[in-house]
Amino acid sequence: MALDKAMERNRDSERESGVPPAGSRFDDLLRAVALTRDRTAFAELFRFFAPRVKSYLMRLGVDAALAEELMQEAMIMVWRRADSFDPRQASVGTWIFTIARNKRIDALRREKRPTPDPADPALSGDPPVSAEARVAGAETERRMRRALEQLPAEQAELIKMAYFDDETHSMIAAKTRLPLGTVKSRLRLALGRLRRTLEDIV
Amino acid sequence: MAAHHPSEESLMAYAAGSLSEPMALLIATHLALCPGCQRRSLDYETLGGILLANLPPVEIAPDCLQTVLPRLDNEAGMAADAEARAEVESGPARDHPAPDDPVLPQPLRDVIGGDLRSLPWQWVMPGLHMADLRLGRPPTRTRLMRIRAGLALPRHGHTATEAVLVLAGGFSDEYGRCRRGDVRVSDPSVTHRQVIDADEDCLCLVVADGPVKLTGILGTIVNRLKAF
Ligand SMILES: [Zn+2]
Prior knowledge:
The complex is a heterodimer of chains A (202) and B (228).
Chain A: H1 2-17, H2 24-36, H3 39-59, H4 64-80, H5 92-109, H6 137-150, H7 153-163, H8 170-176, H9 180-200
Chain B: H1 8-16, H2 21-33, H3 35-54, H4 64-68, H5 75-90, H6 106-112, E1 121-125, E2 128-132, E3 141-147, E4 156-158, E5 162-168, E6 170-173, E7 176-179, E8 183-186, E9 195-196, E10 202-208, E11 212-214, H7 216-227
Antiparallel strand pairs in B: 1-2, 2-3, 3-10, 4-11, 5-8, 5-10, 6-7, 6-9
Zinc ion binds next to helix 3 of chain B.
């Protein structure tokens, strides 16, 4: 019930901010792919995500030909892994993003990205974040969108730039003509504010 | 429960996939020990999904969907994928069996295997051994460090950024106490003198972009020892 309300709000906030359709429609399409191997639904997901996945890869410095290849591999994986998508854990956009991200890392390293395994016997202390304890993916996404909207424009812009930059942030420094130290401290402030805003949103 | 965590910037870079391999390993290992940071890094994955959807689409090959559709249920691809999936679920096959060493979280075991004794340990000074994990590009070095319980390390500074993740035991210095799961990042402005906890040997993962700088009379002696 609460989830339906959350999705309703999600759709509302999308209309307000004019962002691309997200949330339940993508959920429905991916569910159709998982349950009935629906190629029309896949084609619709493809039309939206394929050009953006390629855009993401090129932004991180992958050349156009390789970006096209990795994007195709990522989208094929969306088809094959559709049944493992769990809307409680992530939104469709986030899930596809992590697939594309890992494709790029695999291509760079030709080995697996280190990721924590929840069933790991070496884990101690608090149990890892369980699926039940997480808020639904669509809800997490709604809160993050809200938090971004509430940030001052230049802080939101900096975070967007930094997200697709490498960890040295020298590209941003060149673009904004700010000293590297200033870029780093501004980014730290912006992320601190994003974190506090996120925690205040209910 | 860890008390010292990686910065928000590095959690974001980890989620974005832009960290160097050694730092990605250090962060992934911390996440395995820290549910709070695991949750925060998932927030940054959500951010990645939102930003992906907002990216300006670029041109893709006009027949792209037509080339992809026949590949969807391609048998060879499906088989390879099922294999990769089984590997993800059960862990990759290992040359040497991985005993359930509770010290090494899985991201680290994936890189070095389960047996600490099989690593190329090198003596550095009495009570201190290091093993190079051969990960990352120079000048960055990724090492495990094992230090004897109760040992006081010589005061030293850093020539470049150094990140330390404690895997077992702990240490104290001017900046506080670090135990299992804690991350400490030192930049060149930091000099410190670490004292290892008395009750247990300390095992750390260390990612350094440059060597340490030894200061004081003890440092001189260690430098001399290292020259042999
Ligand atoms: Zn943490």
